Amino acid sequence: MKKITVGALLLSMMFTGVKAQSLKSPDGKFEMNFQLKDGVPFYNLKYNGAVVVEDSKLGLRLFKDTAIKFASEIAKPEDAKYDLNNGFAKVDEKRDSKNETWQPVLGEKKNYINHYNELAVTLNQSSTDRSIVVKFRLFNDGLGFRYEFPQQKNLNYFVIREEDSEIDFPTDMKAWWIVADYDSQEYQYQETKVSEIPAKWDKAYDANASQSLVKNAVQSPLMLKKEGKSPLYINVAEAAVLDYPASHLEVDAQNFKFKTHLTADRQGAKGYIQTPSVTPWRTIIVAPKAEEVMDSKMIFNLNEPTKYTDTSYIHPTKYMGVWWEMIIGKSQWAYSTAENVHLGKTDFTKLTPNGKHAANNTKVKEYIDFAAENGFQGLLIEGWNIGWEDWFGHSKEFVFDFITPYPDFDIKMLNDYAHSKGIKLIMHHETSGSATNYERWADKAFQTMNKYGYDAVKTGYVGDIIPRGEHHYSQWTINHYYRIAEKANDYKIMVNSHESVRPTGESRTYPNYISAEAARGTEYEAFGGNKPDHQTVLPFTRWMGGSMDYTPGIFQTKLDYYFPGDTRFVKTTLAKQLALYVTMYMPLQMAADLPENYKKHMDAFQFIKDVAADWDDTKILSAEPGDYVITARKAKGTENWFVGGITDENKREYTVDFSFLDKGKTYEATIYEDGKDADYIDNPQSYHIYNKTITSKSKINFKMARSGGFAITIKKVIIL
């Protein structure tokens, strides 16, 4: 139980008479109250009359001036006079509301509803004559708030030491979390009580290529559950992280409180601001059912509409890749045996080939043939360009030029060959974290893509960021990601970014930024492994703000198939791999395994060929974070539905109710399910496929194996 001191109780009693500004959601179920207590701003949140968030402080701490000195994170008592967290008086309030429907360029539904009531409170700090606006938007699924800084005489430029937005919960709750890190989200999710986070924190992470951990803090989106007779699901995240660092959540485990912790640069500064400016939105999604949290589009609604004048080039893409064989160690990205190369100086034609370079003409043509034969639109090729011999771990700035192929990769021939078969190649731009180098080469790189007909690029940021001292989630680097997105838009190119910041709904504003990684994906099945419940947590966390390139579709899950004695394996059944194409939203959708493995299971591969990548409707049929997810989606512009169900390490039964189908219509369902003897460890490739005629009145029971699942293709029967 949260400890309440006598002093705190007396203070609470003293302030009960302070007038608050109240805001209700359009449906009246939520109520937010804002008030000043001795000049300090606080807010709280209620749902159906019950307190969800107790009085929580707002504000920011600032540096003295914009001349920041190295390691100036250490604050002095006299610095408090520069802060924007106290001494305020309310001078104005404005209210607004909106109820609109908008269409995402690519999305889980054809229409997103943006319905909210808004309160904007203007506060003046009399000691400095500075004003800020705290803006709240209350939706039918939760609250968003941010700070706004109007341009004014005494607040033109400033540097943020820290943002101190608090979220104070009244009770201990179950939490699904990963450790806070300025550079990576590629960690296993933990499931504990909030009060247990500090005790579990030290054992909740493993090594990463770039790592800057924040002790006893966690990352957002954070999923919470208040258990009991009236359960409540809460998601804490942020929206529209632009020209600002990504945030983390410091944990006060004793009081069940979280506080914003921004990603710093090497000087300890967390945001360089020129007014007028706004911060990202802090978001709190609340619902009595887990399915309603997953279904929320509040984070996208808090982003601005796109300013792009042409989005016609942006399209869903199903692709394969010369990729997995490098991930598992069968092939290599590098062409030669050299360990030290200099772009522009080294003659790669004179180097000794290593004999394992995957991106060669012969192999790429084989992939193109298989992708074309099976209806795919794209093929990703990694390791096509010079520089991979010493690409990682050397803090090397000029590491790639993004335009020069290896001697065994004929870029023109392969593009012509791919286009003749209806396949567009997907360019790979690994930066090795050297963002400055990528910006110098971006125009030439995208011009090369235009020349050869590429319309999508996979960018990568493995390793520490250059400029040195920046982080993957600091303000400068986040600005870099969106500079690249805008530059790509100039050349009509879609972006799939890996090792970048997690999306927070920006696909509404930058719709060509169609996917990202920013979490622990399938590749980790070949590294440290993913727990069987991993894919049941991600839709409640990483996916809340945008699509992930999870790269599913691994049929040969045991790696000892390639390397006898290898103990690595993908911890799912084959049927669960199929289901991931529905439970995970991926408009850039990869069939990640090798063609040779699909050829052995073409009956199961049919589902990957059939499943859509863009949707008119999505219905979360049933879900519980860490346990299971059952999702139905209607393909864009068709009457076809797809259903996917996945479970954690436990066997599970679920009955699909098809009442979401049109009444009075008949459908043909093709069902892919775990075999009776399926098990993710003992028999992962056991599956059963059958057809069944169904209607909206039909119900089918499924038995999922451990870390198993099922997938269904549903097509309307046309009666002539």
Can you walk through the features of this model?
This protein has 720 residues and is of the alpha+beta class. It is 16% helix and 33% strand. The protein is built from 13 helices and 37 strands. Helix 8 packs parallel to helix 9. The N and C termini lie far apart (67 Å).
Q: Helicity range of the residues?
A: 10-25%
* Structural Rg: 26 Å
* Proportion of residues in β-strands: 25-35%
Uncertain runs with pLDDT below 50, 5 residues or more?
3-17
Q: What is the arithmetic mean of pLDDT?
A: 95
Distance between the amino and carboxyl termini: 67 Å
Tally of strands: 37
Biggest sheet features: 10 strands, antiparallel
Shape: globular
Helical region count?
13
Structural class, judged by helices and strands? Answer: alpha+beta
List keywords for this structure.
globular, 37 strands, 10-stranded antiparallel β-sheet, 33% strand, 720 residues, alpha+beta
Describe how the helices and strands are arranged.
Elements: H1 6-15, E1 21-24, E2 30-37, E3 40-47, E4 50-57, E5 60-62, E6 88-102, E7 112-125, E8 130-139, E9 142-149, E10 157-163, E11 166-168, E12 174-177, E13 179-181, E14 190-193, H2 197-201, E15 213-219, E16 222-226, E17 232-239, E18 247-252, E19 257-262, E20 272-274, E21 277-278, E22 281-287, H3 290-295, H4 298-301, E23 317-322, H5 324-327, H6 361-373, E24 378-381, H7 411-420, E25 424-430, H8 435-452, E26 456-460, H9 475-490, E27 494-498, E28 513-516, H10 534-537, H11 574-583, E29 588-590, H12 595-599, H13 602-610, E30 615-624, E31 628-635, E32 641-647, E33 652-657, E34 667-674, E35 687-694, E36 699-704, E37 709-716
Parallel strand pairs: 23-24, 23-29, 24-25, 25-26, 26-27, 27-28
Antiparallel strand pairs: 1-2, 2-3, 3-4, 5-10, 6-7, 7-8, 8-9, 9-21, 9-22, 10-20, 11-19, 12-14, 12-16, 13-15, 15-18, 16-17, 17-22, 18-19, 30-31, 31-32, 32-37, 33-36, 34-35, 34-37
Helix pairs in contact: 8-9
